[in-house]
Write a structure and sequence with these properties.
The complex is a heterodimer of chains A (about 180) and B (about 90).
Chain A lengths: L19 E6 L2 E6 H4 L2 H6 L7 E7 L2 E11 L2 E3 L12 H6 L3 H15 L5 H9 L7 E2 L1 E2 L13 H16 L2 H11 L1
Parallel strand pairs in A: 1-4
Antiparallel strand pairs in A: 1-2, 2-6, 3-4, 3-7, 4-5
Helix pairs in contact in A: 4-6, 5-6
Chain B lengths: L2 H35 L6 H50 L1
Chain lengths: ~180, ~90
């Protein structure tokens, strides 16, 4: 039924050699070429290339498979659980008894890993939870699941800022600040 | 202002900031602990992910608390030195 990753009617919109980013901010789900949404340095810095998976999408009533990074309200998810790892994945999310808490734990896990990334870049990632442009699609693997949550971004940003400050706080910054005041 | 006094002033701000960060992280930790203790989570994957995050936060908090204690000791020592010097000065002036 599916060709490798090309829609089976009209001119294919999705290209084999492109990596896409799916922003699942249900009820909105949008797709675009990953490097159009975040440049490749950011994708690399956020470790998002390790979340590339094959997803089945429905675009204009046509189904096709694309290589994409799925961001579930900003949280990258791989499709299946990798044994003995805690990498956030759709399988665990679907089976979770509390999807909101799974999401929060996943985002904290991600932000901990990204604690060396500069705050303005993290804001770019968190802003994707509000992304409402790109090409609207449906993701077949997410259909029929009750995955809608209402994340509180200010809590996540607060957590990230605390971790950042914990990592960077330095007595000599305060000392030098006083010297500059003299 | 001499170096010791500058350091005391800097330490005052530094300790205040450390304390704020610890309090903030403690709040996040408590919220996660509450979620873990509640009966809402029945699957292992969510529990394990939560526990991993909580261990990380706890480690950060403990490390900050150690830094706080060590800095507080330095602060007290500096205050003592400054006070001794003041006393010496006033004795000498008499």
């Amino acid at each position: 039924m599916f060709h490798t990753n090309i829609c089976n009617r009209k001119k294919p919109f999705f290209k084999d050699n492109k990596i896409y980013l799916i922003c699942y901010n249900s009820p909105s789900v949008y797709i675009d070429i990953a490097e159009k949404i975040l440049n490749k340095y950011l994708l690399d810095e956020f470790g998002l290339y390790s979340f590339i998976d094959e997803w089945t999408i429905e675009d204009n009533d046509q189904e096709c498979k694309v290589k994409a990074i799925l961001l579930y309200y900003g949280l990258p998810l791989i499709k299946y659980k990798i044994p003995n790892t805690k990498i956030p994945n759709l399988e665990d999310l679907k089976n979770s008894s509390n999807k909101y808490i799974y999401y929060i734990a996943g985002m904290y896990w991600l932000l901990m890993k990204l604690s060396n990334v500069e705050p303005f870049k993290i804001k770019k990632l968190l802003n994707l939870t509000k992304k409402v442009n790109g090409r609207p699609i449906k993701v077949k693997e997410l259909e029929g699941q009750n995955l809608i949550i209402h994340p509180n971004m200010s809590d996540l940003l607060d957590f990230y800022n605390l971790i950042q400050r914990a990592r960077t706080i330095n007595i000599w910054d305060y000392y030098n600040w006083f010297i500059r005041q003299l | 202002m001499n170096d010791e006094r500058l350091l005391v002033a800097a330490l005052t701000l530094y300790l205040g900031e450390l304390s704020k960060i610890v309090n903030g992280l403690n709040q996040h930790y408590s919220r996660l602990q509450k979620a873990l203790d509640s009966e809402q989570i029945k699957d292992e994957a969510t529990k394990e992910l939560l526990e991993e995050v909580m261990i990380f936060i706890k480690t950060e908090i403990d490390s900050l608390k150690n830094t706080y204690k060590a800095s507080k000791n330095i602060y007290k020592e500096l205050i003592r030195n400054i006070s001794n010097k003041k006393q010496d000065l006033s004795k000498n002036s008499h």
